[in-house]
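Input record (one chain):
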Amino acid sequence: MTPLIENVMKHSLSITIAMLAVVMTACTQDDMHDGTNLITFEATTSNTARSQASYSSSNPPAAFTVYAAKSGTSEVYINGDIINKTSNSPVTWESSATRYWPAYTLDFHAHVNGSGFYEYSEGTPRFKDFKPDAEASRQLDLMYAVKTNLSRQTVRLNFRHALAQVTFSAVNNSEYAIEISEVKIGNIHQQATFSFPSQDTDGTDVTGSWSEVESSATAIYSVTFNAKSVTSEKTELTGVNASEGGDGSLLLIPQKVTAWNPENKSDNYIGSYFLVKVKMTDNGNTLAYNDYIAVPVAIDWKPGVRYVYTFRFSKGSNGGYTPDPSNPISILSSIDYDISTEDFIPGEDTATDINGPQSPESQGSISGSGTDAAGEGPES
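The corresponding structure, as predicted from the sequence alone:
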């Protein structure tokens, strides 16, 4: 395991459920009223963040939903209890129901923001036909946790991110003044089913899996913002916890999509692409271009990874194209982009030419569990 991934694995959202119990007697839950087998909850969080509702060591989620079944079976014991945060300093939690330890071991699983999609199918928890909201500001961090074969002990639920996070930046080294006000990403699959792993999510490289991705319909996801002037210094277009309202980051289903090829002319885009709304003016303040620029992009997203796409404008006459897939024409200024991938700590950078499809290898993808989406580097 690389030091980066090893560091990541140590800093995911960790929610601890303290199960306080003494001697278990052979009786039903209704028979237990003296509190000796009462299940209570405590939770602590490490660095875990999401765009609109950011989860971190100082801001844990307001609630999570927990389930439990008799170990190795689909016999449900706890069916969707809500665990609410009742205090921030210190962080305390309170269950929506009073529960007691049974005489057998339990397998636990839990989720954050999975309501409406979660189901327990033949002993396998999953998010069935999950579909991110079309509006970036309403997309939520979908998280899951598994802990198995426990009895009368502290249960630590290590939550992991099921989605990929996408943000945008830009750099301008061209002869034009550049303003950007919107970024779209097209031909992205919009629905799939996520199955929880059977192993504990605090195990190394243990993640759930997405299915039925490629068979789903595709969609265009967009983020709009007040026009931002792009300078030679990196300009953040969208990011995590931006000061002006919603941060505009996208949380989308992990997937692999071939890039749109401008040489294959068609009435529709075939393959994935960006549409960047750009206003270009020359040194005499004369408008040179004011429309979308189409940019091919190969997609290879992994769960729990944040992808930062940085558009780089430079002198030249190729790179981006007019937004007409039937007759794309190279625009006035060349564009390259960097892809920075972060398992919520700084990742690898790769500069890539926009002129043609990009190989997945050059994206520097890191497959990890996901911990702190803020990309700040975890606390020790």
